[in-house]
Amino acid sequence: MDQLHKHILLLFSIPIYAILIPLEIALSHLHEWKFYSWKETLINVYLNLVNVGVDLLLRGIALAVLIYFFQYHFSISWNPIVYWVVLFISEDLLFWLEHYVDHSSRFFWAVHVTHHSSEEFNLSTGFRSSVLMPFYRYLYFIPLALLGFGPLDIIFMYALTQTYGIIVHTQAVKKLPRWIEYIFVTPSHHRVHHASNIPYMDKNMGMVLIIWDRIFGTFVEEMPDEKPVYGLYSPIEQPHHPVHIIFHEWKKILQDFNKQISIKDKLKYLFMPPGWSPDGSTKTSKQLQTKWYEERKTTSNN
Q1: What is the pTM of this model?
Q2: Cα distance between residue 137 and residue 98, in whole Å
Q3: What is the per-residue pLDDT across 59-83, written as a single tens digit (0 to 9) for each?
């Protein structure tokens, strides 16, 4: 990445480390909000460091793959402003797609679940990385290389939008003006995404733009009578164990594979949505939500 790209990223990221996180910690302590605990914050830092290490090891491979496909890109004459606008919108859409797949297939959820495992929600949670994601994330950006977007520009834009994705991990900011809430991902939207409440599960997948969720039916407003409960629907054991926190869902998958079931059901345990089971003993988020809304409708009619 060239020096201009690095300077822009530093301009956006340094205030998060130097100003916003210390400010949120101070406000949390002053108002007794209890947004932070030492254990959760340290595990967030640990997971981020592991992710950075994996990402650095694989970045050369990711760049090589994008450069390879860039050789065969369509010849499009981009206006410089249009180039960056289209790159941003296209990459944000592809991130939504990746995020949707991460929540819709247990194989990918086993990677992504680490990011959702904290029972706290604060700016440091934004650094609670899915440490194995660098193994495949860049594959989603191949279409951008084929459209003629430079590999370094693709990586830069992703890093830039990730910076935005970090600052929406906060409870300190309530609702923003209506037009912002309609177009952009806001802290309110992302609180929903991290909540384990049944109506909030697998919703609001966007990184910067919330319009993709509105278009594809994965948007849910934060409800005044449904305060977000952070963490996983089924809390994990040993949430601060440095290895278990990364691989706990893979262990569960292996346990399901060892059951006396057909090969077809074994594969479904791997690729169907999290919570799927052949006998219905566990439920997917959509199954839980269907029941939740039916019960809510029945209650309101009585």
Answers
A1: 0.93
A2: 8
A3: 999 999 999 999 999 988 889 999 9
